């Protein structure tokens, strides 16, 4: 028993193992994917801007590339549904079921 006086909750790491594995690390994994898309976009498009700056003898394309990469990374994250909330509804106490309540009973 925990020493904090709280009852153990069932989850993916409890001995019963009745938790749904899809929700165990969804927030962390989605956060890392969003971070990767944004940082990767900034790096790639900054390098492209730096190359164009050297080619065209300008000094502002690297900054434009960084902004374009950040916007593109956020756009990719949004299109892959990584920016929405994946947590279950705390009011109902259960996880949402796809298609629940949409058909005739």
TrEMBL record:
TM regions (residue ranges): 32-52, 58-76
Keyword terms of this UniProt record: Membrane, Transmembrane, Transmembrane helix
Origin superkingdom: Bacteria
Signal sequence bounds: none
Classification via InterPro entries: ATPase_put (IPR032820)
Region of interest (Disordered), ranges: 1-23, 82-105
The protein's name: AtpZ/AtpI family protein
């Amino acid at each position: 028993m925990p020493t904090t006086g709280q009852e153990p909750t069932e989850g993916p790491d409890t001995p019963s193992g009745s938790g749904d594995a899809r929700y165990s690390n969804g927030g962390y994994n989605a956060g890392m994917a969003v971070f990767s898309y944004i940082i990767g976009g900034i790096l790639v498009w900054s390098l492209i801007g730096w190359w164009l700056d050297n080619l065209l003898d300008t000094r502002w394309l690297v900054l434009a590339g960084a902004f374009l990469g950040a916007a593109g990374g956020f756009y990719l994250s949004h299109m892959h549904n990584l920016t929405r909330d994946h947590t279950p509804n705390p009011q109902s106490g259960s996880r949402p079921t796809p298609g629940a309540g949409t058909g005739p009973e």
